[in-house]
Design goal:
Structural class: mainly alpha
CATH architecture: Orthogonal Bundle
Largest sheet: none
Number of helices: 2
Keywords: Coiled coil, Nitrogen fixation
CATH superfamily: Helix hairpin bin
Protein name: CCE_0567 family metalloprotein
Family: Belongs to the UPF0437 family.
Pfam families: Rop-like
Organism: Methylocystis borbori
Helix content: over 70%
Length: 66
């Protein structure tokens, strides 16, 4: 596999991870005020997942342009 194909496969996995983090955050918001102490942890996981996904997409874009 090429580097671009590997990166696309990784992005697909990261996208699924980010969507799960989004759903976890959404589910938590619907349950509030139950489990309110976990807001920061769940939000941080979502933030990290989307940040990593965005970085990989930018890397892919730069490789495709080059």
């Amino acid at each position: 596999m090429s580097e671009i194909d590997d990166l696309k496969a990784e992005i697909k996995k990261l996208s699924a991870k980010a969507m799960q983090a989004k759903m976890d955050l959404h589910d938590l918001s619907e349950e509030l005020p139950i489990n309110w102490p976990s807001i920061m942890g769940v939000a941080q996981k979502a933030h990290d997942a989307f940040s990593e996904l965005e970085q990989k997409r930018a890397t892919l874009k730069s490789l495709e342009v080059a």
